[in-house]
């Protein structure tokens, strides 16, 4: 029994933190909020050179065959640094399903390029309904000879405007069972008929509207099997939720540590405000929440790395907990800082906004509590 | 990260399971059977039952699993102890008795005692031949435990002790007690206390029962009038008793067994919600209740994995980390919220107590609900624990 990070994982974490403290300072994060692309190609290149993109890919595809838990540890540090850009969309939302369900050809086509930093990808799943269910997939892909024609609108697609390829969830067959008849396509972003508009978000993250008009795709661009894409999507959504949580616990811990540091230094009424019991109790509660989030996230990531049967339950427990606590910790982070916590210049609002965005990504607390209820057959 | 158990630990698990399968047949009909009325929890009958079962566990080698054989323990590992408590919880079997003896006195004696003290005290705690209580709190010394005024004056080979203690759980049937008393009234508060063993049958000790809000007699007031305690019954050094007491506090077990017991309660809660119908549907189908039930399940798991991180720290470092207090705090408040929610689910039936017609499961939830209010007061309040977390773990200034 050993419920702690291994020495190698601690080393990965420490080296990632040191690297990001230097190469992804808050000024870069702020600059990318205004930047057209929304990410730094230099930083992207450096992360690829460190092997981060291919971390969990097998060696034959340019990776180092690390585990999902190793990736979670890395994501925790990236979340702490608020690394801007399509890392998670490329690696987790597209890379992992290609690894899991791709043909040998597809894996060879995409994974080495992702690992080398030469391929940016994203997932086009959600639609204007905002649903995370299979029934929310209505963008149609109709057969046309050997090809398929995609028509419809996807929304909230991260970094579609810089993606080389999009993994797109479509409906290829209508039936009473909405989980049947979903097909995933690997779509070249340069294909004619794709219109992308970047939305303005609170965090500066580039979420996009992607409109497909008569977009023609060859059969070979199907990932997995025709009409049988939903099981792949379900796994993606579980892994995405846990990846999001890993990102969240990194940010939450930054917010906690920064608030505690401030409370030690800020003098009011002749003493550090950190000596006031109200502040001490706030910080103790924040620590309890962050420690809980870290424990459940490591467990959920471990469950993915073991392909444990309970990983869907683990993902929902994890996302429910983290969705609630990150925003709370960040809100208290602002509160403890008083007036300056409420300024644009202080970094706390970057975390507070990220906390809210992460809360709704891939299902919030209420959504995942309901999933837990269903799994437990309540 | 490895959540598995070693082959040896699994072998031990099978041993425990096999023993439980055989021996639980001997439990009285009322054990874990909502259909049959159990004796009152503070009755002599319940106590004798607890001691009888404890001794069966002892004979099977399941008491003091991680403690040295030379003092009556099994000489096993911490993980085997964890496995044992998991199986007890899983099977909803009774656990060991003599909680203060096992939980406080043995660890403190192992850490600070002389060889003679270890040999004299530990074996009889493990067999339950000597039952222990603690004499720490006083009317003026609750959270401020160092404010102890009970005075121990040297007189020849003894200390003569005068004072008053309160909240002495089990004092009315205990054979021995650990006592915190002031041996140097001139030293700074924390450095004038000594930690001693006292025979509860000593002349001069008077015990007066107190009733808690459940109606049970669990704790007492204890008066010490010129009680003689031989000097060799001091544990650790004279005037260093505060540090012994604090160290003993840190040894409080949480561990995986506690997490499994909490999981049992949550599963009971979910079952209760599924089986109770109101206005034609199960309570577990009602949206607000459903969300709350799911959240309890999530919290039980968050708590379990926090505990496992704490256990890993203990296994790696040999002592619990200061983060253990976070797990403890979470567990106590979680249990209180859980018990409160059970009352809510029972609706008007929540008012019916043991002995009443229509009472649910003989009012055991009513007892648990009321008793849970004491969990946040005994062994350190959440207010104090939050101060400790803030100051010792986060380094915030006093």
What does this structure look like?
- The complex is a heterodimer of chains A (378) and B (398).
- Chain A is α+β, with helices and mostly antiparallel strands.
- Chain A has three domains: 7-92 and 105-117, Butyryl-Coa Dehydrogenase, subunit A, domain 1, CATH 1.10.540; 123-229, Butyryl-CoA Dehydrogenase, subunit A, domain 2 (Beta Barrel); 231-375, Butyryl-CoA Dehydrogenase, subunit A, domain 3 (Up-down Bundle), CATH 1.20.140.10.
- Chain A contains eleven helices and ten strands.
- In chain A, α9 (311-337) runs antiparallel to α10.
- Chain B folds into three domains: 7-97, Acyl-CoA dehydrogenase/oxidase, N-terminal domain (Butyryl-Coa Dehydrogenase, subunit A, domain 1); 132-239, Butyryl-CoA Dehydrogenase, subunit A, domain 2 (Beta Barrel), CATH 2.40.110.10; 254-393, Butyryl-CoA Dehydrogenase, subunit A, domain 3 (Up-down Bundle), CATH 1.20.140.
- Chain B is built from eleven helices and ten strands.
- In chain B, β2 (151-155) and β3 (158-165) form a beta hairpin.
- The two termini of chain B are 36 Å apart.
- In chain B, 40% of the residues are buried.
- The mean pLDDT of chain B is 94.
- At the A-B interface, α7, β10, α8, α9 and α11 of A face α7, α8, α9 and α11 of B.
Query: Beta-sheet strand percentage of chain B?
Result: 5-15%
State the distance separating the first and last CA atoms of chain B.
Answer: 36 Å
Main sheet overview of chain A: 4 strands, mixed
**CATH class membership of the largest domain in chain B:** Mainly Alpha
User: Which pair of chains forms the biggest interface, and how many residues does each contribute?
Assistant: A-B, 43 and 50 residues
C-alpha Rg of chain B, in Å? 22 Å
Indicate the structural class of chain B. Answer: alpha+beta
How many beta-strand elements of chain B?
A: 10
- By oligomeric state, this entry counts as heterodimer
CATH architecture of the largest domain in chain A: Up-down Bundle
CATH architecture of the largest domain in chain B: Up-down Bundle
Sum up the overall morphology of chain A in one term. Answer: globular
* Tally of helical runs of chain A: 11
- Unreliable stretches of chain A: none
Strand order of the largest sheet of chain B: 1-4-5-8
What does the average pLDDT of chain A come to?
98
